[in-house]
Amino acid sequence: MKNLLILLLISIISQNCNRPNLQNDQWREWAINNTQEIKALEMTESHADLSLLKEIVGDASIVCLGESRHDLHEQFQLKLRFIKYLVEELNFTTFALEASLPYSKEINEFILDGNGDIDQLLTNMPGWFLWDTEEIKELLLWLRAYNERAGHQVNFYGFDIVAPNEGLNQIFEYLGEVDTSFFEQISNKNFGQHLIEDNFWMTTLQRYAEATTEEKGLFAVNYQELLNHIRDNKIDYISKSSEQEYDWIAQLAFSANAANKMFSSEDRVEMGLIRDGAMAEISSWIIAQNQRTIIWAHNVHIAKSDFVMSMFPDTKIEGMGYILSQQFKEEIVSIGAAFDEGTFENENRTFQPATPSSIDGMLAALAMDYFLMNLDDYSKSEELATWLSQEQLMQGQEFEMSCIPSKAFDAFFFTKNISKVRYNRATLERLRN
């Protein structure tokens, strides 16, 4: 018992010494000057409590908005407010979500022209039912209303690769119109579509794991042949359709090829790197067409430096955010998300207060419900500069993320308490089943 108490005391002391001292006048002055309390969680007409966001963004044309988990109501709601501000005040024209690329086309048609039923579109958006929520529905309805009245249009894209079947269907339909002979040749080849479950890509992973090495080798040959042929026939295909149509199909082919590589891998880290590398390339394509782009994804995907995930403690990961930051440099800003504690009432699940020495715990100590913190000019606080330049922990989706805050993010937004997102009825029923 005595040894246990000694270890506990050492742990408490080390935690308290591993973050800025909030009683330090230098730190408190810096925090006051670089933090803005957010007064409203819900979307409002006033942006007065988000003015710090303009300072954080500066001249950047790409803003990445992170999240600690994919199911936090409060973080979703704040991101809705940020997007509204970025569109209305800073003229951002594209919203890109960590959602499946092939299915995003119909969502874009809805927010541009009002085509389709929003509930059906969200219910049919694949993945693992992340985005079929009242919060995302509210955002898409706002974007639709904005596009109806605004002088410029905001576009929507997904940049994830995990649901390739719909992409393959669009590719085959396109080839049937512009290249009948190749379509007849390629449509009889095996792309493993019987293994792919667009609605739940974890099922696809399980099925691929049961496929033989020979099958996976055949899939790889066929996907690469499809991608190469589409790229090699660019000029001919554009002449028979349009440059915009061709670019879309080429991206779908790239995405499907990358998805097959990811599903075929037997190494979890490699799978993640394939996915993040592909999402970075798709995001670059989106940015090249639309310039001022908002990217919505998990913290691990928008971190601008390498990081470590607790399930892979010996591996430094350079994800999508790292790749994009190497390409776009000062043009990209990443805003990480943090929270303290909360409850998922319907699941009888409680999140205990954040560890004091973690990034979440450090931000929680400022005792505000919601706020933005700009990490620019942190050198004025020596204590903070030291802390921000060292590896620190952040809460994640059933894991912890370790990163150097000043390298990984340009700013943070924080929510004191969290609750579960509001799933739409059809998806809630699926989850219950």
Structure report:
With 433 residues, the chain is α/β, with parallel strands linked by helices. It has two domains: 24-160 and 293-432, EreA/ChaN-like  fold (3-Layer(aba) Sandwich), CATH 3.40.1660; 165-271, de novo design (two linked rop proteins) (Up-down Bundle). The chain contains 20 helices and twelve strands. The chain has helices at residues 2-17, 25-34, 51-57, 73-90, 104-113, 118-123, 134-149, 165-178, 180-186, 201-210, 213-232, 234-240, 243-264, 268-290, 299-302, 320-328, 359-364, 382-388, 405-408, 425-432, and strands at residues 35-37, 62-65, 94-100, 155-160, 293-296, 308-309, 332-344, 349-351, 370-374, 392-395, 400-403, 411-418. The strands form two sheets. Strands 1, 2, 3, 4, 5, 7, 8, 9 and 12 form a nine-stranded mixed beta sheet that branches. Strand 10 and strand 11 form a beta hairpin. Helix 13 runs antiparallel to helix 14 (268-290). The longest helix has 23 residues, at 268-290. The protein starts with a helix and ends with a helix.
